[in-house]
Amino acid sequence: MNRHTIQILVWAAFSILLTCCVGVGSKPAGQAGGSNARVVNVPAFDADSAYSYVAGQVAFGPRVPNSEAHRECGDYLVQQLKRFGAQVDEQCDVVDAFDGTPLQMRNIIGSFQLGNRKRLLLCAHWDCRPWADNDPDEKNHHTPVNGANDGASGVGVLLEVARQIQQQQPALGVDIIFFDVEDYGVPQFMNELSSEGSWCLGSQYWARTPHVTDYNARFAILLDMVGGKGATFYKEGFSEEYASAIVDKVWGKAHAAGYGNYFPKQRGGYVTDDHLPINRIARIPCIDIIPMMTDSELSSFGDTWHTVNDNMEHIDRSTLKAVGQTLLEVIYNEE
Ligand code: AHN
Ligand code: ZN
């Protein structure tokens, strides 16, 4: 090997090294490894907008099944989804409550990019509980709940997500389902009855008879009571059992986006909620984002849960933002 050849080899090795360094340095920030990493622009979730959709529902009064407020609010939700460019489907039927009361059920489904086979499912319940049976004052136990947090908050966040999707298409099709008759479970003042199966009637119905035959989604996320001040969303037990990879993905995005305080990476309790029929009957991996308050006197779901105080006064835009922005980070990073 002469001196010239050695010079060329040294130069070649040097340029390869240089190219590698430039290559690493120029990779888009925040992208996980892999040469096909893509730059994603995640839109900013507007908490004021979400808040106004929560207030819009609460203004109808308690959306208890078979009531006027329920009918009117259902129409409002359909109209909002259509305004955001979703294809809207409704499942209307009569379901029997635990005590035999026939309830006019209405599941409301808004779909984006119907032709896309890659899909995500996002859901929340929109009905209100007929009884404030966890209120500290027994006189209120037969008063319906306003459901600002318990119902309206999750729906409000998803309406804002729908508005964002209309402005910027994610890579996947999205289905948003507002489940009805989640909260008609056996009241505490009738605790001689078994409450098994009395909750989540709308999601049980949808999971047995989806709005589309052979419906499938990569995964699903349920929001429940996502508007309370200082809420902490621990990792819910069934979500960990059925969809731990989705839990890790969502909690990871929350921490990366700066909302770690709302999403402790620790295990919470098990909750009977709309994610159970989705996991067990529809067999789509589904997680539940639901608060678990360690310092609440009245309920682990927070002080206003199933009380007459579940109103707009206790809805916090910062919590809506933490959950909504986390959701957008997840949605727009799927490919
Ligand atoms: C039970 O209390 C069994 N499940 C809570 C589900 C729920 C009620 N979510 C909102 N309201
Ligand atoms: Zn409830």
Topology at a glance:
Layout: H1 3-25, H2 47-58, H3 68-83, E1 87-96, E2 102-112, E3 119-125, H4 148-167, E4 173-179, H5 201-208, E5 219-223, H6 237-256, H7 275-280, E6 286-289, H8 317-333
Parallel strand pairs: 3-4, 3-5, 5-6
Antiparallel strand pairs: 1-2, 2-4
Helix pairs in contact: 2-4, 2-8, 4-8, 6-8
The chain binds N-[2-(1H-imidazol-4-yl)ethyl]acetamide and zinc ion.
Task: Provide a descriptive summary of the structure in words.
It is a single chain. The chain has 335 residues and is an alpha/beta fold. It has a single domain, classed as Aminopeptidase (3-Layer(aba) Sandwich), CATH 3.40.630.10. The protein is 36% helix and 13% strand. It has eight helices and six strands. A six-stranded mixed β-sheet has the order 1-2-4-3-5-6, sandwiched between helices. The chain is globular and about 60 Å long. About 8% of the residues have low confidence. Bound molecules: N-[2-(1H-imidazol-4-yl)ethyl]acetamide (AHN) and zinc ion. Zinc ion binds next to loops.
Main β sheet profile: 6 strands, mixed
State the CATH class.
Answer: Alpha Beta
| Dominant shape | globular
- Can you tell me the CATH superfamily? Zn peptidases
Strand order of the largest sheet: 1-2-4-3-5-6
Radius of gyration: 23 Å
**Overall CATH architecture:** 3-Layer(aba) Sandwich
- What is the first-to-last residue Cα distance? 51 Å
Q: What is the percentage of strand-forming residues?
A: 5-15%
**What is the CATH topology descriptor?**
Aminopeptidase
The residue ranges in which pLDDT falls below 50 over 5 or more consecutive positions are 8-33
Question: What count of structural domains?
Answer: 1
Look at the structure and give the mean pLDDT: 92
**Helix fraction by DSSP (H/I, runs of at least 4):** 25-40%
Structural class: alpha/beta
The total of beta strands comes to: 6
